Every structure is written in C-alpha cells, then in structure tokens.
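User: hey, got a sec? need 30S ribosomal protein S30 folded
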Amino acid sequence: MKLTIKRTSGASLDVGLISHVERRMEFALGRFSHHVQQVKLGLSDESSPQGETEKRCRLELLLIDKEPLVVSELAVDEYAAVNRAFAVMALLATRRVDRQPRERAEGIPVYG
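Assistant: Yep! Here you go:
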C-alpha cells in the first residue's frame, strides 16, 4: 500500500506521528492490501466553537476497481484523530471488500 501524508493549516508532523500512522494503517488495513491502490491522509488544525484548536484527520482509501472511501475525524490531538479515522476506515473497507460477488455452485453470482 502506498501512503501519502499531507499536512495543512499548521498541523505538526514528526517522526513519531509518521510511525504511528504506518502502524495504524497496517493494523487496520493490512488484510486488504491486495485491494488497496493508495492511502491518502491529511492532517489539519481546526478551531472549535469554544475557541479550542482540534485536529482533523481526513483519510482517503483508493481501492482497485472500486469507488474510493473517505473518512474525516476530529479529535483533541493528531494521534486520537488518526486512531479514530483508521478504526472507521477498517469497518468501511470490510463492508466494501466483503460485498464482492461470490459464485454459487451453479455459477450464479450471489451478493452478501
């Protein structure tokens, strides 16, 4: 899987965070690696209505021969936002990949 990380709006990106992203990606999406073309991750700072700065993680999963999946999560720090985004993406990827048509014994496709 190819990983692209983009930092915008003052979000910090250090070696520890990159390592964390790579571990979370492998844990959450590793079993789908033969279906995944690219993973795009964007980190940004956003102001909450209370005036606090929160971190947004936008995750895009480009699948081979399927529509891309996109998740956006907001949290108090980058690590929490990354964790939440990959957790949701793992659920979505499971649903999308498992919806592959299967063949019955007679050769009739079955969905589900």
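Quick note: Residues 34 and 80 are 27 Å apart (CA to CA). Let me know if you need anything else on 30S ribosomal protein S30.
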